[in-house]
């Protein structure tokens, strides 16, 4: 599976938008881009996924670069509850998830 | 719906003891997974079951065995626990029949081996 690169951490202010970047320069044409997050002391939870087009759901938006070598998870208005580790994961046809260390998001009140 | 449930929530074992971690899902999912998460690390896949009656090794299967008891239940057994198996264990499930599909995770079992 192709690898992803994320910053170790990011800080944001409550009620402001947050843009979490992910680089995946070796992505293949059939790889989907998934985002999961893990709140403290909990199991991961699905956030969003996409292939080529930008995607929106009730939790977040996913912006995918035209060449698909990078993507950005957008939280439109961060809340304290959004403080978590966010994982950017590529999946091929076997759809197995390979978790890296993710990016730790801190939200300031 | 309870989603994915795991028992126990916490467990302390002595080196050499055995135990079984239980996982059940009520979402009628075909696929189930066991992961471990060490401090400060991402999750690593131990075993998975693509459907009832099948199991396959993941990234770190040594020291573990699994049983897909039925469609709902997937257990993970440590035959002879070692301190290196101290970790948080997560079970997950997902539907199949379409790609891609999201995985739903349980709350985890925190295991300490002394």
Description of the structure:
The complex is a heterodimer of chains A (109) and B (114). Chain A is mainly β and 109 residues long. Chain A contains no helices and nine strands. Chain A has strands at residues 9-13, 18-23, 32-38, 45-50, 55-56, 61-64, 70-75, 84-91, 103-108. In chain A, the strands form two sheets. In chain A, strands 1-9-8-3-4 form a five-stranded mixed sheet, with no helix packed on it. A four-stranded antiparallel sheet of chain A has the order 2-7-6-5, with no helix packed on it. Chain A is globular and about 40 Å long. With 114 residues, chain B is mainly β. Helices cover 0% and strands 49% of the residues of chain B. Chain B is built from no helices and eleven strands. In chain B, the strands form two sheets. In chain B, strands 2, 4, 5, 6, 9, 10 and 11 form a seven-stranded mixed sheet that branches. Chain B has a four-stranded antiparallel sheet with strand order 1-3-8-7, with no helix packed on it. In chain B, 34% of the residues are buried. The chains are: A mainly beta (109), B mainly beta (114).
